Amino acid sequence: MKCMEVAVLFVLVQTMIPHSAAFTVSVSTTSHPTSLPPYLTHPQEASGPPHSAPTLFANVSGSLDDQGICQCSVYLPDTTFPVQKVEKLEIIAQTLSQKFDSELSKVTQYIKAMEVYEQKIQNLTIRVELMEKTSGSYTELDFQLLKVEIKEMEKLIIQLKSTLVGSNVIVEQLYVEIKNLTMIVNDLELMDKNNVLAIRRQIVNLQNQLKACEENSSKTTEPPYFAPGSCSHGGILNITRPYIIQLNWRGFSFKYGAWGRDYSPLTPEKAMYWVAPLNTDARLLEYYRLYNSYDDLLLYNNPREYRVTYGEGSGTTVYNNFMYFNIYRTRDIAKLDLNTNTVVLRKALPDAVYGNRFSYAGVAWQDMDFTVDENGLWVIYSTEASTGNIVISKLNETSLDVLNTWETKQYKPAVSNAFIICGVLYATRTMNTRKEEIFYTYDTNTGQESQISIIMDKMLETVQSINYNPSDQKLYVYNDGYLVTYNLIFQPILQ
Description:
Blueprint: H1 2-16, E1 22-28, E2 58-64, E3 69-75, H2 83-133, H3 140-163, H4 169-191, H5 196-219, E4 233-239, E5 243-247, E6 257-261, E7 273-277, E8 284-291, H6 294-299, E9 304-319, E10 322-327, E11 332-337, E12 342-348, E13 369-373, E14 376-381, E15 389-395, E16 402-411, E17 417-421, E18 424-432, E19 435-443, E20 448-457, E21 463-469, E22 474-479, E23 482-492
Helix pairs in contact: 2-3, 2-4, 3-4
């Protein structure tokens, strides 16, 4: 029976293995088989027709040895069993399983890393959008921090790409996003459309300058004081902002004219103010007013209004209760007594041009400009011989005789106005609609001329006249119909 069971086992093996193999089996048994089944007998012992059915095994024989062990020989269709191939297959399967587990673990790590990168990109995107929308809320340090963070992310993405075999859409998208962020940040920094960085640097610089200026101003003392009527100073150092007193009493249409305070050397405390607007033709001086105090001037109280019919231009001045002006259509000077409103003296100014020949720039009919300083009465004009350059003459206020004359190299029509302090001529020119510059001086004491730069702020565009008063050391300016004053600051004489 044991031999039969072995044979049956072999049948099963043949059905499982397609290749042929040969087996020799020894089975020990204590019983004596009576006979073998037909399908385990030798071919010559098998019964039945020779081609009735295919045999499962070929060349099968079996016998008992002396010890009662059953010896069977089975021949399968194939002669070898692929044991080594099965072993190799098993090893390959184990290796692939290990690699699969390792790659699966890496994919899990990559997913976590990409989630972190995605969050960082979202944060960077929000910051970049905020910088694009808010022109003044970022600094140069913000750009540097963004660049560092983007650079780190770019390195990580490149490292992630190198570890993946083949293409990965998510990683490629991350890489493109980081590159786009880099370009945006670079464009923001380089273009800087609103010049925010430059403005911030300039603001810091200005703040430092302001701080230094405040420190210096806290250390400086008050400007030196010089008594009115004194010439112990070294000339104008600076000028204050304009003080607008009021519009002339005739109205805004009367833009041309002159005004000031009477200077009396014997009574410098005297405070009589005069206002002499021209008619709307900007040429004829017909009316003027006198005020006995500054308060009367401000309130238009108690004015004394007079009429003349022969004054020309806005070069008028008042000195020691007399008004001096150019007589209409002549080169004559008129001396008008303010107490009686009568011309007490009239005299021609030798060689002076008239008829708007060489007037100031922007101011017509001011061929003669009368001015007063600590030394008395002066007239500023031009001659044909001077070819339009400024000529200065010191006048005897009693007789109107010319005491002395100086010819300068400064062309009068290039000057917007002029005045004299302590024998020094100061000429102005227009910079723009809001600023005037004192740019030229001529010292009659030494005959020297020089260039300076002292800026005067002004309310309106055109300065029609400037009168200096030694009593209060102020400039009285007629500015497009408005009465304006400036305080002067003098510098000490350099030793």
